[in-house]
Amino acid sequence: MPGADTRRSRKAADARTVLPDAPRDGVDLDGLSTGLDALQSTPHKGGARLGGLLLARVLPPVMAIVLILAVWELVHLSGVKPDYVLPGPGAVWDALVEQWYLGTTLGVIGQSVSRGALGFLAAVAIGTPLGLFVWRVRPVRTAIGPMLTGLQSLPSVAWVPAAVIWFGLTDTAIYAVVLLGAVPSVANGLVAGMDQVPPLFVRAGRSLGARGLRGVRHILLPAALPGYLAGLKQGWAFSWRSLMAAELIAGSPEMGYGLGQMLENGRVAQDMPLVLATILLILCVGISVDLLVFAPLERYVLRTRGLLERAP
After folding, report:
1. Which pLDDT belongs to residue 122?
2. Where is region (Disordered) located (predicted)?
3. Rounded Cα distance, 205 and 213, in Å
4. 44 and which of 49, 166, 255, 307 could share a cystine (Cβ 3.0–4.6 Å)?
């Protein structure tokens, strides 16, 4: 029939239009793969790449800081609060400069950071096997799993009076508060990461001989690493917050002079520029640890699992 022949010839012409270079038996898969790769890759020159990184990573935080300082200065100039209650950014900067010239800033920051790092490492050493034990033994998880979640939600400052009574005004009391605040976060993060491991990974590891501790080391922990890393970040945040609460309340000259004691001294002297300057230092330390330690580690973990594209 002429009409049927015409329709078949039109379909063949359309097929040749869609796939002009394809062989008659099927599609050229090599060419299609090359085209997809070309779509995903975008050529960048060195200058354009540097400019893009500056615009994407440096400019937004700088603009946010400028905006916060501008709003702060406007509120200060509006006279909502007296100067001794709400000083401006200039007065806080002068307080920072004064502390720097007194030679106490680096020592104060070093004291608190060393305490926080040591307490966090101890929390990781305790929380990791605890999380593995809770995840592995179901009755234990049923018994103490809700308790770990409750301890994680408990404010760290609530432990300070008990720690002072137990251990006195010593560094042991401070480390006890840090551990009680950080260990539940590390353990819960590991348990959450383990729960997200596909059972197929565990069965495949067992078929290859990875059982017991070998299975945990080579199968479970690598697969649960993204969730575990999130727990570590949260554990550091709890460690730092717990440390500041402990230093603020349980400070004494014999224990050294940290950021918490510096904040308390500013409160006692009613020196609001010093109080706000100390708060900024505490905030800067927390942000710096996240940017210099956890953010690169998180990018590396995500990139090795194909969850984050490598920068061109």
Report:
1. 92
2. 1-25
3. 12
4. 49
